[in-house]
Structure formats: C-alpha cells, structure tokens
Write a structure and sequence with these properties.
Number of strands: 9
Order of helices and strands: EHEEEEHEEEE
Shape: globular
Strand order of the largest sheet: 4-5-2-3-9-8
Helix content: 10-25%
Structural class: alpha+beta
Distance between the termini: 26 Å
Radius of gyration: 14 Å
Oligomer: single chain
CATH architecture: Sandwich
C-alpha cells in the first residue's frame, strides 16, 4: 500500500540534515492546526516523542510523524523542500486544499 503522505527526496535530505545537526533521535512532526488566514495551517517541529497512535512515514534517512487528526487533512499530500533565492522552506502539496494563501502555510478545505 502506498503511503498516504509522501516525502520528496529533497525534503527527506533536508530533514536528515536538520536531525543530524541537532544530534537527536527526532523526526519532523507535521501538524495541521486550526488558524491561519484560510482556516487551517501547517506546523513543522522536530519532535523526539511519539504518541501511541502517531503515523510514522519514513523515506531514505528521514522520518515524519503525523497525528491521526492531521493525517485526515493530509491524506494524499506530498512534503517537498524548496531552496530558492526568496527563502528556503518545507511546502506541502495537498490535494485536499480547496484554496491556500500566498505564503503557502494555510489552506481551506471544500
């Protein structure tokens, strides 16, 4: 079965780099929270803790942890990492988002 949430090679490499620099056994926690200019917003944190019902996605040397409520809104999404002149950031390509704001960190669902 295909993962309900995917990481690009660029995102996996950046997560592995960040975790190695922190010298911790951590994963990138991706959450969807209420708020932002469109109703929901993404939050990214390094997290060494795990809840019993967390969903763990692994790709190459990287791990992402997502809680079940966030996964409902992230199903079918892809996490990428962009390193551009205007800034570097993680970006979620979410097919469930009906609209998103210009900053790319908040979205709404239909």
């Amino acid at each position: 079965m295909e993962n309900p949430f995917r990481l690009t090679d660029r995102a996996a490499a950046q997560i592995a780099t960040i975790v190695a620099a922190q010298q911790a056994d951590a994963a990138l926690r991706v959450e969807v929270l209420a708020g932002g200019c469109n109703g929901f917003q993404y939050r990214f944190d390094l997290d060494a803790s795990r809840a019993e019902d967390d969903i763990i996605i692994e790709h190459n040397q990287a791990r992402v942890v997502i809680d079940p409520a966030s996964m409902d809104l992230l199903a079918g999404s892809e996490l990428d990492y962009t390193d551009a002149l205007m800034g570097s950031h993680f970006a979620v390509r979410n097919p469930n988002a009906a609209s998103s704001c210009g900053c790319g960190t908040s979205f709404s669902v239909a």
